[in-house]
Amino acid sequence: MIKYLKDLWKRKDLLLYLVTSGLKAQHRNSFLGYFWWLLDPLLNVVVYYFMVSVVLGRGGENYPVFLVIGLVVFRFFSTTLASSAKAITKNAGIISQIYLPKAIFGFGTTLTQSINFLFGLVVIAIFLVIFQTIPGWEVLWLPYVLLMQVLFQAALALLISYLCVFIRDIENLISHITRIMRYAAPVIWEADRLPAKYSWVVEYNPFAWILDGYRSILMYNRLPNLMALAYVGVSSLLFIFLMLFFYQRNEHRIIKAL
């Protein structure tokens, strides 16, 4: 295990390459290029705001800010899961030629989408200014919430990228799973409107805790649930080390499956 961690550290230059090449590849053939990192979440907000607030007449006070935070944070989550499905399989050519710790591809996917998320934070900041929602000193806890989310998604990315080597059908299921997650967490709806008998959908949903952390800081000027987020982070970190141990024991099986 120690040797595997050292191998990962030695390949940090490859990790940097995976992140930069991943950023370039996403919009390489598009006319607007990197501008899509800002435009995509903005268009999603417009569509859902029209559907929920204009058509259905719901949403409540400060709903545009509530909505943009939910959609941008969820986009970070869903794109990480979707791209992790191909993290190893799309690099089969490299893997077959030289030895690489395969876990590096899951980490690369997570870091790439983390940088994309920073552009989403710009969109959130624009909405905060437009709707005069000014965060208080609690915004200092924003990096903490972001770190917990990155750890959570890195754990999932390692699991999904490994499973997709052997079960390619999982890649087709990811979009359906994330669609369920979009409506199982208060991304576009407010948690307090959920009937009591379904409250467990939010109470036991780690992504809902993370999302509430962002809104608590940016909208409501209150501290996030630090203990719940710490539980997410510690559990994710333990799972990451478990997956690294699993990768180290099964590297040869990955090569054979590819």
Automatic annotation (TrEMBL):
Main location: membrane
Swiss-Prot/TrEMBL keywords: Cell inner membrane, Cell membrane, Membrane, Transmembrane, Transmembrane helix, Transport
Pfam families: ABC2_membrane
GO biological process, one term: lipopolysaccharide transport
InterPro entries, alphabetized: ABC2_TM, ABC2_TM_bact-type
GO cellular component, one term: plasma membrane
PROSITE patterns, per database record: ABC_TM2
Stated name of the protein: Transport permease protein
Species, as recorded: Spirochaeta isovalerica
Species lineage: Bacteria, Pseudomonadati, Spirochaetota, Spirochaetia, Spirochaetales
